[in-house]
Amino acid sequence: MLRGLSIAASGLNAAQRGLDVTAHNIANANTVGYTRQQVVQVANKPSIGGVPLQGPGTFGNGATVQEVRQLRDGLVDDIRRTSLSDKGAAQHLATAMRDLEAIVGPLDSGLSADFDNFWNSWNEVNLHPEQVAPRGAVIDAAQKLAADLRNARAQIDGISTRCTQQLGADAQEVNAAAREVASLNQTILEVTSGGGQPNDLFDQRAIAIDRLAELTGATIRRNGPTVDVVVGGAILVSGGTASTMAVSGNPPTVTVDGAVAKVGGAMGAAQQVAGSGLDDLRTRLDLLAVGLRDALNSAHANGFDLDGNPGGPIFTGTGASSFAVDAALTARRLAASATGAAADGNNALVISGLRDGTIIGSVNAPASLTLRTRDALADLTAVVGVSAAAADRTEQMVGSALAAADARRDEVSGVSIDEEMTQLMRYQRAYEAAARVVTAMDDVLDTLVNRLGLVGR
Amino acid sequence: MRVGDLQRSENAIDVLQRSVGAIDRAQRQVATGKRVQRPSDAPIDAASITVLRSAEADIERQQRATADADAWFAVQDGSLQSASTLLARAKQLGLQAMSGALDAGGLAAISSEIDGIRAQMVSIANSSYLGQAVFGAFGTQAVTTTATTATFTGTPGAQVQRQVGPGQVVAVNTDGAAIFGFTAGNDVFGVLQRLSAAVQSGNTAAMSTENTALDTRAGDIRTALGDVGARWSSVTNRQEQLADRKTELASQRSQIEDVDVNEAAMQLAQASRTYEAVIASIARMQQMSLVDFLR
User: Fold this and answer.
1) What gap in Å lies between CA A203 and CA A68, rounded to an integer?
2) pLDDT at B103
């Protein structure tokens, strides 16, 4: 008779645990990275005093909560981390490429327009070689052109520098996350070896690992209750110990405890951009600057200025970064004349005609890069445009992949309020029923104790 | 498939962002009228736009050069027409003087008219456009004269060049040394001066020599007039070509760069409708919960 009471008590207990877990799930419905939990309830083995009962007519022994299980799919988590790493890289690249688009400037007033203005200003000198105003316009156009070329080059270098700085900051964050993973590993090991089940610590560790994956493309190796984190072949976290990531040098290299690690994710993208990723654009700008300098200076040297002296250099500098108008160049010293006569503007015409000549690569450059300036600029526009558009598309694509992975994770691990409400009702009813069983047993006992044997009274 | 609440609201936010982004893009296109605003909008089109804009700038440059050439030729044509008329008149006067029907007074009158023609010829030879002598190349003056001599002070044989097309360079001046006879060693000013002197003195033989020389010089001027006319008409043709080409380039660029306004407005309307549907559905979805139906 008393066994019925203890069965009812086990039911009350199990329902109570069910309500607790449901409450915990509802409380964490909006917690990022939370994995929903579920009570795993089993029927007690039928026994009396530890001896299992056998044979027909064996009675059950109530229910017990075996474990509180996290609904997690390790494979989905791993796939999601790959997506996170891709997203980190794509996001970083897209930001850099969007910045890069600025180097060609607006389509109607950027570098290309600078060149057109420059060539056209020489044409004006051809029309009015003796007037000073058109000559001044040439100097202004040349200054603007040189400044914009330098600026374009500076923007590229600026993007590289920002990426290098970002790498350093990222490494700090990686180290903090790695230490967190290591310390959680330690705690988890302690709790689990004591028979506990630190579900919420698993979640915290997963969040830290997600961040590591996004930043570095880290992967994990499960090792009992603890996990090891691996970055590009180097072990970043092993059980309860974390290694230190460092960034050094230019182009930057990433090391883990001194050994070079090949990072992926956002840091991988940053490393690529800070390293050789933008060299093609640098080369293009440098060739443009050097080609322009050589072609113009040599054409200019063939002419004579207003005072009858041969033309000096127009542009100086060894590349786009040092490209500048020669300091000695003044309006009077523009060699517009082919003969030395002040009213002769024929050399200005030759220079203005260079717009149709193959300037880029006319000197010291491979034949494949021999281009007219306008084609070189169209190429540059296309190159930065294609890179930026591709980076945008990649970002969208990996964004969708990540959303899909999130959905898959959520399918297993996400909290649904409606579902929890149903669970709540279920456990509540179970509790009520178990309580009713206790009352029933009480009635039975009452009958037994107080109402039986009235005969002998 | 299970769907968690966190994910559901994140999906809703994602969809919301996408539809707002679509509205933003459509709205920007309508506002600016440009389909390609950044190279990444359409990289190859952006490259084409760059090339077309550059070609348009080049056309503008050529238009300025042809307009300038046109002015040079206009000045020369007018001057050479006058020169031709003046020389014809001088020839007529020379023949009149040779006829022997005139007395000393009549000859003196003719002589002084020929002197006047010479002075006008000097002024014609020094015709200038914006301070530059059209027959003197790089000089400000083509001819300087004294009572008896004339010297060419321009740059003989030099060309004032204008580029009116890719690789198409034209000389916009005419070599005064050639057309006024300095190169041939018998300049028109000397001829007129000697004719005037011969008429004054009644020297028929000398008059005859100078009349013949005058024919040669008048022939040179007519040839020059034809030459200027030919070059002028080629420049005028080029101007028309350039105007056509400019319109053509602008329309090409517009086709690539500009939005079809109707289409853009349609897209904007469509994006707005999508957005409305999205926010309506989110509002409905978020209102519903099992909690509302449980007692």
Assistant:
1) 14
2) 87
Cβ–Cβ below 8 Å for A112 and B43: no
In this prediction, residues B85-94 reach a mean pLDDT of 93
Give me the numbers of helices (H) and strands (E) for chain A, helices first please: 10, 13
Q: Which two tokens stand for residue B17?
A: 């962002």
Q: What pLDDT, in 10s, does the model give residues A3-47?
A: 788 899 999 999 999 999 999 999 998 888 899 999 999 998 876
Residue B114 contacts residue B192 (beta carbons within 8 Å): yes
Question: Looking at beta carbons, which residues of chain B come within 8 Å of A419?
Answer: 2
End-to-end CA distance of chain B: 27
Q: Which of B203, B1, B164 is nearest to B70 (CA)?
A: B164
| Phi then psi dihedrals of residue B20, to 5 deg | -65, -40
Q: Is the peptide bond before A252 cis (omega within 30 degrees of 0)?
A: no
Instruction: For residue B172, give the DSSP letter.
Output: -
State the Cα–Cα distance between residues A259 and A234, nearest whole angstrom.
8
pTM over 0.90: no
With beta carbons less than 8 A apart as the criterion, state whether B133 and B142 touch: yes
For B31, residues 6+ apart whose C-beta sits below 8 A from its C-beta are none
Q: Which residues contact A39 (CB under 8 A, 6 or more apart)?
A: A14, A17, A18, A21, A65, A68, A69
Integer Cα distance of B156 and B178 in angstroms: 8
Cα B187 to its chain centre, rounded Å, is 34
Report whether B248 contacts B55 (CB < 8 A): no
A-proximal residues of B, 114-133, CB under 8 Å: 130-132
Of A229, A265, A271, the residue nearest A247 (C-alpha): A271
Residue B140 has pLDDT above 70, yes or no: yes
The candidate with the shortest Cα–Cα distance to B195, out of B102, B105, B89, is: B89
Contact of A335 with A300, CB cutoff 8 Å:
yes
Report the amino acid identity of residue A184.
Answer: L
β-strand partners of A304: A310, A337
| Tokens read off for A48 | 């009396």
* pLDDT of A366 above 80: no
DSSP summary character for residue B100: S
Residues of B with Cβ-Cβ distance to A112 under 8 angstroms: 50, 53-54
Which residues from chain A sit within 8 angstroms of residue B52, using beta carbons?
none
Which tokens is B137 given? 């190349």
Query: Is A414–B6 a contact, with Cβ atoms under 8 angstroms apart?
Result: yes
Reduce the secondary structure of B72-84 to three states and give it as a string. HHHHHHHHHHHHH
Q: Which of residues 266-295 of A touch B (CB under 8 A)?
A: none
Residue of B nearest to A355 (CA): B58
Considering only residues 415 to 434 of chain A, which have any Cβ-Cβ distance to chain B shorter than 8 Å? 415-419, 421-422, 425
SS3 A385: helix
B284 at interface of A, judged by CB pairs closer than 8 A:
no
Sequence-ordered alpha helix ranges (H) in A305-452: 346-352, 373-413, 417-446
pLDDT at B253 over 50: yes
Q: What are the b/e assignments for B139-175, b being 16+ CB within 10 Å?
A: bebbbebeeeebebbbbeebbbbbbbbeeebbbbbbb
pLDDT tens-digit series, residues A84-141? 999 999 999 998 888 888 888 777 778 888 889 999 999 999 998 888 899 999 999 9
- Helical spans, DSSP H, in chain B: 5-32, 43-98, 104-125, 176-179, 188-201, 204-257, 261-287
Return all residues near A429 (Cβ < 8 A) that are at least 6 apart: none
Q: What chain B residue is nearest to A117 in terms of C-alpha separation?
A: B57
CA distances from A276 to A98, A148, A254, B49 (A): 18, 23, 15, 29
Token pair recorded at residue B150: 């004339």
Give dist(CA A399, CA B11) in Å, integer.
12
Q: Please give the ipTM for the structure prediction.
A: 0.82
